[in-house]
Specification:
about 5% helix; mainly beta; Beta-clip-like; methyltransferase activity; 10 strands; transferase
């Protein structure tokens, strides 16, 4: 059995972000409504995920159901660095247990790919740095 297929459909690179830390940036134009790629990681229970995120500021954890989560902390997928934005250009979707990121509108080469995280373990206690008009200000 060989290596799993590359889940990235469009070229994405990681670079310093004006939003926070490292970001995921389009390395080529991405049309609207397209799957950009996936974020893979260790499948764990939601209970284990909630234990792992305690007292940790930077996490890469996605709950995919009431019982399962993906810990992408050690993933090599560039989309794991997708930052939150209150006016995102992409959306995170859970499909058949996979964490996928899809473009919501045209994303140009060099644009940072962003998603709205929705509810997080920070429960409004972390400042949002997206800087867009109408920013909610918290995660």
């Amino acid at each position: 059995m060989g290596k799993p297929a590359n889940p990235q459909k469009y070229a994405v690179i990681n670079a310093p972000s004006r939003i926070d830390g490292t970001g995921a940036f389009a390395a080529e134009p991405i049309p609207p409504g397209r799957k950009i790629g996936e974020i893979r990681g260790e499948a764990i229970s939601v209970q284990e995920a909630r234990e792992r995120v305690k007292n940790v500021d930077r996490i890469m954890m996605v709950e995919i159901s009431d019982r399962k989560a993906i810990d992408a902390s050690r993933s090599l997928d560039p989309l794991r660095f997708t930052n939150h934005c209150c006016r995102p250009n992409a959306v995170l979707r859970i499909r058949q247990g996979r964490v996928e990121i899809h473009s919501m509108r045209q994303i140009e080469e060099g644009d940072e790919i962003t998603c709205d995280y929705g509810e997080t373990h920070h429960e409004g206690g972390m400042t949002c740095h997206c800087g867009v008009p109408g920013c909610v200000g918290k995660l």
